[in-house]
Predict the 3D structure of the following.
Amino acid sequence: MILVVVPSAPDGAAAVSPARVVAGLPLLTRIVRAATAAGYEHVFVRDAGPATRDLLGGTGAVVLTTSTPLPPLSKRRIVVVAANVVPQSRWLRALLEMPIEPERLYVDGACAMAIETERAGEILRAATRAPSAAALVAELARVFARQALPLTADGRFPLASAGDVATAETWLLRSLIKRNEGFMSRHFERRISLAITRRLVATPVTPNIMTLTSVALGLAGAPFFLSPAPAFQVTGALLLLTHSVLDGCDGELARLKFQQSRVGAMLDYWGDNVVHVAVFVCIAIGWALSAGTAWPLGLGAVAAAATLGSAALMFAHTAEDRAVGAESPGAARLTAALANRDFIYVVIVLAAFGKVSWFLAATAVGGPAFLLVALWNRYHGRLR
């Protein structure tokens, strides 16, 4: 599995420099990191001078010249993209996995190419000679039968000029919205978080810093639920909403700059659930104090335990964004729907009337029910 990056135009004529920063990363670096994330075994970048080596530092990609030692080349899938294309990893992965006929050249409108061939060495040598992607297509089309690439173009964005960079960044940001987002989260919170993320990509702020910031805000909001006063409860609810908005930024930064890690995903996920537990506990304590009785503490304990139990079961689905499709069993779709965070808006409405205790009561009933549904789906293999 080989990716080859070639110039988009003859030397010196490229409209967009490979060093041009797109969403926090130089374009060439972004292409290579996207390919690595997509699972390419080898990534070669046609030599375009000293700047090429600087942009590839630490990526594992190899500068392709006439003297570059090549790996053993038997039958290989080779994908070629032009250096002016902003790709998504899912698109590059699709180029690897799509069924194609061997010894046939598949090409799209941006001169992206895919071929399954026993003559991989010839293609790599042709890539060192061709002055542009279009020239490489023309040379290879003299040897291989040419066919349209059977893949939609929505996973890549060719930059025709420097003026396209802002549009490409918007396109990249929109692709970060998870498939399992709730309605309000998708249409309201993500609009805000993506605007923040767009400004953060050019700063040293890391995903883990954003996680800790959002968790701190969420925990700061929890004590406001100790009071029965609507003003205090609304303040707590708004801090919880701010936590939710900023909680989106860490994952967006990580995916945009290819900084995902298992540790980061766990910190994000469990930090979010610690905030929820803190809110439930504070609501229970405030309710118990205002009512002069201890039984609301039991509801808080049930809600907290159900939250942590459900979180343990749902980690893979939520943190890894495993969407449940329309063909999934009804119980699995219900589980996925209940796992989103649109409940925050219910909390805000109830807080306006000083009635967040109602939400705790509902959670103390719904939380265990959700946990049972999740356990049922896990037992029957419907949720992994």
